[in-house]
Design brief:
2 domains, nine-stranded mixed sheet, globular, 13 helices, about 30% helix, alpha/beta, GMP Synthetase, Chain A, domain 3, 23 strands, four-stranded antiparallel sheet
């Protein structure tokens, strides 16, 4: 593996806008010159080629320049989410002692089904990911991307490298804020004299929901071309709401081990076949294995895991088992059904937790929900639900009656836990293991 400088390898015109912060703008030429002193400072502090450097990051211009400086000296950044606790950061740093030389980056799996692991990302995989996404979505030099995800998340890191490799513009103004994003889509909130409304944004479903709320049902302007939505299953009612108000949504399925996108449906494809994440990207192979598990291999696959006690990332034939369930339809489009960890078996009946969660979220009193199986001496498992209320405490009897009209009896939650905030990991995903632990303890 070899570390590359995406700024110098990319297609950026030296006079074209590369990076936009809250108060200033860098052309590609400016940005190239801004990276050099940061790289010199790193060398002066003892950083060197081949070294793995953990650093706390966020989606701002200074972090983008810091990442580029590390790549320029041939070092490997290991971005850490700003939301991690200090013990979590220390555990990550200890894991990195076993990291290989020459990785472009080391990121972390979300850890919703277990302890996070370091994932070794190569420059070849990031390059293949960028070009596969460009082909699917028609990306190029005229795009203006918002850095809407932390570069500690594969979606955020891939967004940065993709923009630079393709010669696009990148707006990096800090952590995601829905009201600010809605303004940026209209060209507001940029440095004085800059006319570069955001044309593309990468979101997780919760961010899309926040954007729809602040937009008040208004459609985005014609200059806005794509909301790439992934990171977690997009509820069908949320997608329907976005499409009804004219948002050009591109549903995508990806994972850290595949260097972001595996399959992506363009906005046109999403309108024609809502719910599908489309076909695999160029250079990626997908098949459905036992128990409907999605298996992935190809040019975008990461090089492996890092840490003590981690197993191989791929099987003998090079396939990575994702832990997600899906199906391929007759046209080759992928539909993600849920995670294998989301399956509950109660009284011999297999229940998909995601189906129950979607039914709960469709009720006006429920903002979000997580459904898990709890050990039961009679049924093997019983269905339990943590509910994040939309306002005050929901009427559970009315909610139960609502679900009975929509779900078979074995799928109905046998117990509810109502709390205002679901536990989430550093990447913003619901921590299903934590939910199960809390519900198990509380009876």
């Amino acid at each position: 593996m070899t570390v590359v400088d995406p700024l110098r390898e990319g297609r950026g015109d030296p006079q074209a806008v590369a990076l936009i912060g809250p108060e200033r703008v860098w052309t590609y030429g400016d940005l190239d010159r801004a990276v050099d002193p940061r790289a010199d400072a790193l060398r002066g502090s003892g950083r060197r080629a081949g070294q793995v450097v953990p650093l706390v990051v966020d989606a701002d211009a200074d972090c983008v320049i810091g990442l580029l400086a590390l790549w320029r000296i041939g070092a490997t950044p290991a971005p850490l989410n700003a939301k991690l606790t200090e013990p979590e950061r220390e555990a990550a740093r200890a894991t990195l002692e076993h990291a290989p030389v020459g990785a472009q980056a080391i990121l972390w799996t979300s850890g919703t089904a277990g302890r996070p692991r370091g994932v070794v990302i190569s420059s070849d995989a990031l390059r293949a990911s960028a070009h596969g996404a460009a082909e699917r979505l028609g990306l190029g030099t005229h795009d203006v991307w918002l850095a809407s995800l932390s570069p500690a998340h594969i979606g955020g890191l891939a967004l940065i490298t993709r923009a630079l490799l393709l010669g696009s513009s990148l707006v990096a103004v800090g952590p995601f804020d829905a009201a600010r994003t809605w303004g940026l889509v209209h060209g507001r909130g940029l440095p004085a004299g800059v006319a570069a409304p955001v044309t593309h944004v990468s979101l997780v479903p919760t961010q899309l929901l926040r954007l729809l709320d602040v937009s008040g049902g208004e459609s985005p302007p014609p200059s806005f071309r794509c909301a790439l939505v992934g990171g977690a299953g997009t509820p069908s009612d949320l997608l329907a709401r976005a499409l009804a108000t004219g948002w050009p949504v591109a549903l995508t399925y990806g994972l850290t081990e595949a260097t972001s996108q595996v399959a992506t449906a363009s906005p046109e494809q999403t309108r024609l076949k809502p719910g599908s994440v489309g076909r695999r990207l160029a250079g990626v192979s997908v098949r459905i294995g036992e128990d409907d598990e999605i298996l992935v291999r190809g040019a975008t696959l990461a090089s492996g895991y890092v840490g003590q006690g981690v197993g191989p990332m791929v099987d003998a034939e090079g396939w990575h088992p994702t832990g997600d369930m899906g199906r391929l339809d007759a046209e080759g489009d992928l539909w993600v059904i849920g995670r294998r960890a989301d399956r509950i078996v109660s009284g011999g009946v297999t229940i998909d937790a995601v189906e129950v969660e979607e039914a709960l979220r469709s009720h006006a009193a429920v903002a979000d929900a997580c459904v898990v199986g709890l050990a039961d001496p009679e049924w093997g498992e019983r269905v339990a639900a943590w509910i994040e209320p939309a306002g005050g405490a929901p009427d559970l009897k009315a909610l139960d009656a609502y679900l009975r009209a929509r779900l078979a009896a074995p799928k109905l939650p046998r117990r509810y836990h109502v709390q205002p905030h679901l536990p989430r990991n550093a990447n913003g995903k619901v921590d299903r293991a934590a939910v199960r632990e809390v519900l198990s303890r509380s009876g």
